[in-house]
Each structure stands twice: as structure tokens, then as C-alpha cells.
UniProtKB/TrEMBL annotation:
It comes from the Bacteria. The keyword Signal applies. It comes from Alkalicoccobacillus murimartini. The keyword Lipoprotein applies. Keywords: Lipoprotein, Signal. This is Outer membrane lipoprotein-sorting protein. Residues 1-23 form the signal peptide.
Length: 348
């Protein structure tokens, strides 16, 4: 991870120190003090949006890479996830299933970053395309927090995420409040309670199956399998687009959709003399932002996001219930990409 450096502590103590800053100006030396490491705590949060939907959660973290999270909708327990020693167990009360995943030592993949690493990741992620402002110290739940605000730069504004605000505890770095503007709608997640603790009962990070739910191994269920175009078309609930006859089908892999038990995700690769085109198709859910480097265009009479960078040329859009992400590798221009996508067709 890129090391984030220096803002003097004195700046944080001055209410007049509200200013735009780069990521390098925000974190490192200001928090080289006791309390900046791992911490054990219990936190309860509520998430609200402009349409009054409310979800709540409770989290236990022991500071030694073990966590337990419980999620509720309208006060009804919907799922629990427990992570301990690289093993994550997900219990879904709606689907009545338990999914077990062994991630080994890859703690970042299972969301087991320390509170400090989480804050640093947010700053790294947003500072490329957002102006970062330190808004001062504010008190939440009787604790002092640092308040950062991220505003999208005009050249990266594609009418999606436009603002993000973050309040994190000065001593522990635990995030106590977040506020995000997505399009015209605001979403706020705020701690209702927060407690630093010394230890937990042994059973806290154990997830039982008293209900007898079906148990699955994540990699057994969701690992991609080699699949031909014809087989994938038969499995999909909707017909999907493919490239025209000037391209040759190279490979395809299918897996179950993480969000829909009866649907699939298909990853296919085509080639021609210029290089290769990778197409990722799934049930539509929203256009894919790539760190704010997208240009909003129209292809196939649909709104689309184009990324035309030295390291990445891609297009993604939604059409007739499906979502497409197409990546081009080789001697292709943005104009080539638009033409190739325009010529895509459904199977006859």
C-alpha cells in the first residue's frame, strides 16, 4: 500500500484548519501515538437513506483478526458473518444456508483490515478523484472524532458518487459515521453505541447451525467452470450478446451469481488479429466505476461508461436485464471498442 504521510498534529487542533489536502497530507505522523493499533470493541450501527429505509448491524472485533457481524432489517436478523483465523462463515436466514470460506492468511480479502488500515484505504481510494477537506474535530457518542469530507472533482463527475464524509475516532481509528451521496440520494451510517472492551466470551466468534441450514463451501459453489457459448446460453435466464464472426471464441467460464441462486455470471474471451476482448456478463445492478476515470457515452442506444487509459480500455453498460463489462487488450482504440460493441448481437 502507498504510504500516506504527514499532517502536523497542531493542524488538527485548530478549528481554522479546514482546507483541501492531498492524501499524502492527511494521515501518517498525526496519529503516531498510543491507540493507533489494533483494538477490541463492540459497535452498533444504523444505516438510513432518503427513502427512509433502515438497516442496523452489530459488530464485535477482538483486535486479533476475529470478528462477528450481525445484520438486521426492520429489527429482523437477516444474516451473520463470523471471521476467525482466516475462516469466514456466512449464515443467511433468508435463504437458510451457511457458506464457509477459507481465505487463509489473506485478511484484506475478508475485510479484516485494522481500523487504521480501513481509514487509509478510504483516503487512498477517494483522493485520486475527490478533493479532500479536513473539517475539524467533532464529538460523537462522547468521543472525539476527526471529520474528513471528499468532494468529486468536476472533471470526474459522472452523476454517481459525488460526496463522501467520514468521521473516525481519534484514539482507535474506528469509523463512527459515514455519509455518501450517490446521484441525488444520501446514505448515512452512524454508530448508535461504541465500547472498547478487554475480552470476549469464547463463543463470540463461533457460529453454530442449530437450525440445520444447508452448508456449502464457497469455492465449491462459486468457482468458475469452463463452459462453451452454447452451454452458457442454455443456463442463462436471458439471452446475452456475443461478438460478430470476425472474432474467434477462445474460452468461457461460468459460475453461480453471488446475489441470485438461480442465475449465473459468464466470463468469455474472443480474439482477432489485434488482440483479445474479454466480456463479463451478469444480471444488471449498476455501472462500474473505475476510480473516476470514466467518460459517459452512449452505445447500442444505452448509457455507458468508457475508460480509455494507457493501462485499461473498457466499456460497460446495461441492456435488456443484463450488465456487460468489456475489456480490450491489444491494438484497439476507443473508436474500435465502440464499433465492436455496436456490432455485438444476440444468438439467432
Amino acid at each position: 500500500m502507498k504510504r500516506i504521510a504527514v499532517l502536523g498534529v497542531s493542524c488538527f487542533l485548530l478549528s481554522s484548519c479546514s482546507q483541501q489536502m492531498n492524501a499524502e497530507d492527511i494521515i501518517y505522523e498525526a496519529f503516531e501515538k498510543e491507540g493507533a493499533g489494533e483494538v477490541s470493541y463492540i459497535i452498533e450501527r444504523s444505516t438510513t437513506s432518503d427513502d427512509a429505509e433502515i438497516t442496523t448491524s452489530k459488530e464485535w472485533r477482538d483486535g486479533q483478526n476475529a470478528s462477528r457481524k450481525e445484520f438486521f432489517e426492520n429489527d429482523e436478523l437477516t444474516y451473520i458473518t463470523v471471521s476467525n483465523e482466516g475462516l469466514t462463515t456466512y449464515k443467511d436466514y433468508l435463504d437458510e444456508t451457511i457458506t464457509i470460506t477459507d481465505f487463509g492468511e489473506d485478511l484484506s480479502y475478508i475485510g479484516m483490515l485494522s481500523p487504521r488500515q480501513e481509514v487509509e484505504d478510504y483516503i487512498n481510494h477517494y483522493s485520486n478523484d475527490f478533493d479532500v477537506t479536513f473539517e475539524g474535530s467533532e464529538e460523537l457518542l462522547g468521543r472525539n472524532t476527526f471529520h474528513l469530507k471528499f468532494d468529486i472533482r468536476e472533471e470526474h463527475d459522472i452523476a454517481m458518487i459525488g460526496e463522501y464524509e467520514l468521521w473516525f475516532d481519534e484514539q482507535t481509528w474506528v469509523i463512527l459515521k459515514e455519509r455518501l451521496k450517490d446521484g441525488d440520494q444520501y446514505f448515512t451510517t452512524e454508530a448508535d453505541s461504541f465500547e472498547v472492551v478487554d475480552e470476549f466470551p469464547d463463543e463470540t466468534f463461533v457460529l453454530d447451525n442449530e437450525e440445520g441450514f444447508e452448508e456449502n463451501d464457497f469455492f465449491d459453489v462459486y468457482s468458475p467452470e469452463p463452459t462453451s457459448l452454447e452451454e452458457a446460453q442454455d443456463k442463462f435466464h436471458l439471452p446475452f450478446l456475443t461478438l460478430d464472426d470476425s472474432f474467434q471464441f477462445d474460452s468461457g467460464f461460468i459460475r453461480q451469481d453471488l446475489e441470485h441462486d438461480d442465475r449465473y455470471v459468464y466470463d468469455m474471451t474472443f480474439t482477432d488479429t489485434r488482440g483479445s476482448v474479454n466480456i463479463y456478463v451478469e444480471t444488471e445492478w449498476g455501472l462500474v466505476e473505475i476510480y473516476g476515470s470514466e467518460e459517459e457515452i452512449e452505445v447500442r442506444d444505452q448509457s455507458a461508461l468508457l475508460v480509455d487509459e494507457e493501462s485499461l480500455l473498457s466499456l460497460n453498460w446495461q441492456e435488456e436485464g443484463l450488465q456487460y463489462f468489456v475489456e480490450f487488450e491489444g491494438d484497439y482504440s476507443a473508436e474500435d471498442a465502440e464499433e465492436i460493441v455496436t456490432n455485438m448481437h444476440f444468438p439467432e
